Amino acid sequence: MQNGYNENITPTNNEASTTTIIKTDIDSKDGQNKCPKCGATDISLNTQNGKLRCNYCRHEFEPEKITGMVTDISKLQGEVIGSGATNIIADTNDVLTFKCSSCGAEVVIDTSSQAQARCHWCRNTLSVNQQIPNGSIPDVLLPFGISKDIAQQEIEKFVGKRKFYANPKFKEEFTTENIMGVYFPYMVVDINSQVYLSGHGEHLNRRYTRGSGSNATTYYDADLYQVERQFDLAIEGLTVESSSDKLNNNSNKTNNVINAIMPFDIQNCVKYNANYLKGYTSEKRDTNVNELKPLVEKQSKDVAKFSANSTLKNYDRGVAWSTEQVNIKGEQWKSAYLPVWLYSYQEVKGNKKILHYVAVNARTKEIMGSIPIYMPKLILVSVIVEILGILAMSIIDFEYNFIFLLLGIVYFFIIYARYRNSNARHKYETETKTKMDNLRCVDKFIQTKKGLTNSKIANANNTTISGENLGNQLLNSLTDNNIVSTLFNDNNKKGE
User: Between the CA of residue 286 and those of 27, 291, 335, what are the distances in Å?
Assistant: First the structure.
């Protein structure tokens, strides 16, 4: 720990930014994409190496990277936007007509649902590669790296571990034959920022107990410090969904499972080419940069706050930040298609329909899903567990035997969470790539506090995220308790 006050640390303010549009579809051409070796247009993705392959002569193409975007995030200034991420124009015509260069026939492509079509006369493939302002053509794309067979195996394993309480109709109808490969739309954001945090932290000196039995009370003695941190932070590849349907969850959908399979290895993104979409479906972007900025600003502040935790290891009772400022000096936006293998199932409950998903990250095999539960069976078993808990409480002499009264309820919520995963999410605050520079610290001793009854400093927030929902707070409070934490550990692991 560094002691002493550094007078050079001052709060920062957001700077005005200018916007630069980078054209990312230079040299892209609509129409026929021909194999340079044989001239065929039947080209598709080889998932084993991420290259495009001619299905006629088997020649493979090296992936092409986009050019013109800023690569050194620490030097990013103002606002840089890839041309595929510019605002969607509402009245853009989604239907394009191309003249086949081989036979002269006119071929219609509805870009709202596809980027390629075959000529009905000569069977050559025509592609849309130039960006049009309807959100269907992104700046970059991350090719599928996991085959359908592997994705099916992962989904079968995930569902297989959850069949005991699964709805009988779901078990009868479940099959992985209908899984689909989907390119979902995202915005990938790089941020050059300066961070200023100020608050108080506590270091534990002594923990002791007074009294005995039910009258025992635990006390804590701790040193209180004024804590300040200022540093430059480069955030690389902060990824947010750019489909409004995925951003707005509701009780009839389980869209959060799509969010939970991130992060993707976005450093391997390639320049968009319609041939990567052959054999897969895609969903076009329907949100603009300005609509996503509040979310990105909130998440970047969380990333900054969690980055500072590596400098706060001596504050074992936590830090309560009162000032959190992130000055964004530069930001760069790219639209991207990222690959997902998706299984979906519609559960009907009376007049209500609930869509369940199991999703596999088609690059990392990260998996998350929601399985419909047969509630009568879960409730019955939970009641049995509760009865056994009450019996155990009357037999076992245990200081915390009141816990036995909660066993049935705890069991119910553990199983429900394991099957539905309603709190699953991408932990962007720790999983986003960052680089910290020019760190300046203040750790100024204030006083020693004795006889404290709380195990943490009041209002500790250095490990909480912005807008954390009540369900997550409840789960965190339960898992912080050493008595029940082991019950939750396995269920907090993704994909198990």
Answer: 25, 10, 11
